[in-house]
Amino acid sequence: MRKRLVIGNWKMHGCLVENEKLLDSIVAGLDGLPANQFAVCVPYPYLPSVQNTLKNTNVSWGAQNVSQYEKGAYTGEVSVSMLNDFGCTYVIVGHSERRALYGEDNDIVAEKYMAAQRAGLIPILCVGETLEQRDEEITEQIIQEQLMAVINKAGVGSLSKAVIAYEPVWAIGTGKTATPEQAQEVHVFIRSSVGMQGNNIAKELTILYGGSVKANNASELFAMPDIDGGLIGGASLAASDFVAICNALSN
Ligand code: PGA
Fold this sequence. Notes:
Layout: E1 5-9, H1 16-30, E2 38-41, H2 47-54, E3 59-63, H3 80-85, E4 90-93, H4 96-101, H5 106-118, E5 122-127, H6 131-135, H7 139-154, E6 163-166, H8 180-197, H9 199-204, E7 206-210, H10 218-222, E8 229-232, H11 239-250
Helix pairs in contact: 1-2, 1-11, 5-7, 7-8
The site of 2-phosphoglycolic acid (PGA) has 13 residues, from strand 8.
């Protein structure tokens, strides 16, 4: 079902004491807002304490990555069932930092996406082009390849239990946000691409925008007809910013 969502991606930030303060302020700031619209994706070691703090609140939680394998000799990896042990709702797959820094290609991302769904987790599938690719005018081709790698393996129907995040790589952590019109254009492309495979799935697809979303630009992004919310990096680490972004979604 198409949802409105704001999800924080803490990346490799935080410590027990700071997390507690951050989450307490977020929970207080979001009190009274609807359930199932807000979440934070945190580093693995903090999942137990985050679960403890957020259970019985309107903020959900998840992880930023997961192994494609169920279990076995994969030193340093974390499985979907481990994420389920800590009540995760979401897991980010295919973030551009994983793709660029850890060699996760479209095939691996599709495997992770399927592993997440088999375990009942909602994958947040990240797609997006680099600056070079945008300049070469191959944005749509790149995104089509990223989407089709998943659709070919998992089937278009799987997208009814997933979230897509369009994150132009050039906008991540750079302070250079896509304009609402630029983002809307790609969101329409994603929806129509999926629509070619299954029209009803496309209409119901939740597509978030990510890349330098801040308190002062969230409203205009979220006002675009095909932008269903945001995946928030830097601004999810300051409670007042994150709460303002969440409020921009609800207004
Ligand atoms: P940013 O990160 O908001 O800091 O640009 C977004 C992301 O990487 O998900």
